[in-house]
């Protein structure tokens, strides 16, 4: 739609698209609204809405993913997570422990990372673990702790949703629902979360192509949830010097073909504390919209992912470096 299109113009186009038996997705932007059309089997005869007031142009999207594509929406999406913008000019730092282990641990990390400059807190209450005998997260008790963390520190909460059964419960607490690498192609979970109308942080599967990542994001948008943030967290390769191989080239690739913001998680991307700072610098230099960083006050006692957790003072250094790096690439932090 034109920048000058009125809400009434948008409504008229939506009604016209629906009149043809298709689904209309008005995706708001800061400058203008894009209206995605899905549900068509072949080419859409746009004659019915092309000349309606407010329509700027009709663009057939050739990519397999539609609503997430830059063809559908030219301007980059900014997702508001509890009032914190993700995807704009400002680089977003999300930090916290892998898992919420106790109120004391979560609050200590939250205060330290907030004071160092993190804008959002992360921490899992439900953890996807390779072994059924490993710590699975505190569940509902963990969610209660996350609420306390938000009350005490003012930091909005990013936390993982593991399955459709607990999705609504987790959404009551979360400001942003994380869908983990192992669940990237859990299509019933994607559909469910797409209907929950909470911002989503969608992590790339450990063996997923970018096309598969974007098609998973498409599931969320197709359900009407346009507040989606992507996250590169490393993929599995033959290389064994790191836990995963952090694919930083994914950033410019995704940014060219999609309007969705993209973060980098160098914690899971390397699995090694000493590699998190250098790969954070690289991710920011490559254009990432932000970082997802695991921090623990006593990593040797962590119940999950201790070897990759930064000490709070290491995170403070990272945040400081990101602030100094940001103006070099025309951003703020
Ligand atoms: C996490 O963020 O703690 C996590 C489990 O990440 P991933 O899904 O990327 O492995
Ligand atoms: Mn983790």
**What's the rounded overall pLDDT mean?**
96
The level of helicity is 25-40%
Ligands, ions, cofactors: phosphoenolpyruvate, manganese (II) ion
- Helix/strand-derived class? alpha/beta
* CATH-defined topology of the largest domain: TIM Barrel
The number of distinct structural domains comes to 2
Strand order of the largest sheet: 11-10-9-8-7-6-5-12
**Largest β-sheet summary:** 8 strands, parallel
CATH architecture of the largest domain: Alpha-Beta Barrel
Shape: globular
Distance between the termini: 32 Å
Q: Uncertain runs with pLDDT below 50, 5 residues or more? A: none
Strand content of the residues, in percent?
A: 5-15%
CATH class identity of the largest domain: Alpha Beta
Backbone CA Rg:
20 Å
How many DSSP E strands? 12
CATH-level-4 superfamily name of the largest domain: Aldolase class I
What do you see in this structure?
By secondary structure, the protein is an alpha/beta fold. The chain has 2 domains: 7-48, no CATH class; 79-329, TIM Barrel, CATH 3.20.20.70. It has helices at residues 7-19, 47-50, 103-116, 140-153, 164-173, 187-194, 210-222, 250-257, 266-270, 273-285, 312-325, and strands at 23-27, 34-38, 79-81, 84-86, 92-96, 120-122, 157-160, 176-179, 200-203, 228-232, 262-264, 290-294. Strands 11-10-9-8-7-6-5-12 form an 8-stranded parallel sheet. It has a two-stranded antiparallel sheet with strand order 1-2. α6 packs across α7 and α10 (273-285) runs parallel beside α11. The longest helix has 14 residues, at 103-116. The two termini are 32 Å apart. Phosphoenolpyruvate binds next to loops.
């Amino acid at each position: 739609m034109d920048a000058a299109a009125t809400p009434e113009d948008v409504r008229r186009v939506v009604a016209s698209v629906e009149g043809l038996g298709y689904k209309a997705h008005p995706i708001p932007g800061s400058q203008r609204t894009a209206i995605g059309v899905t549900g068509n089997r072949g080419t859409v005869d746009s004659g019915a809405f092309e000349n309606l007031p407010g329509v700027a142009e009709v663009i057939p999207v050739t990519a397999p993913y539609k609503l997430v594509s830059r063809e559908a929406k030219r301007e980059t999406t900014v997702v508001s997570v509890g009032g914190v913008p993700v995807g704009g000019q400002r680089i977003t730092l999300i930090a916290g422990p892998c898992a919420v282990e106790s109120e004391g641990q979560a609050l200590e990390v939250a205060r330290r990372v907030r004071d160092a400059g993190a804008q959002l807190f992360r921490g899992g209450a439900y953890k996807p673990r390779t072994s059924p005998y490993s710590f699975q997260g505190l569940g509902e008790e963990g969610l209660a702790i996350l609420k306390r963390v938000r009350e005490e520190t003012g930091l909005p909460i990013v936390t993982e949703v593991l399955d459709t059964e607990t999705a609504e419960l987790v959404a009551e607490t979360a400001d942003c629902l994380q869908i983990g690498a192992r669940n990237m192609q859990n299509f019933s979970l994607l559909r469910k979360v797409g209907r929950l109308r909470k911002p989503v942080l969608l992590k790339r599967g450990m063996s997923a192509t970018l096309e598969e990542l974007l098609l998973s994001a498409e599931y969320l948008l197709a359900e009407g949830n346009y507040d989606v943030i992507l996250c590169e967290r490393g993929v599995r390769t033959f290389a064994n010097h790191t836990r995963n191989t952090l694919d930083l080239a994914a950033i410019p690739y995704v940014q060219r073909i999609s309007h969705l913001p993209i973060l980098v998680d160098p914690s899971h991307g390397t699995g090694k504390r000493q590699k998190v700072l250098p790969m954070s610098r690289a991710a920011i230099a490559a254009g990432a919209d932000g970082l997802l960083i695991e921090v623990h006050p006593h990593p040797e006692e962590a119940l999950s992912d201790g070897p990759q957790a930064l000490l709070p003072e290491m995170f403070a250094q990272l945040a400081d470096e990101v602030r100094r790096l940001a103006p070099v690439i025309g951003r703020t932090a």
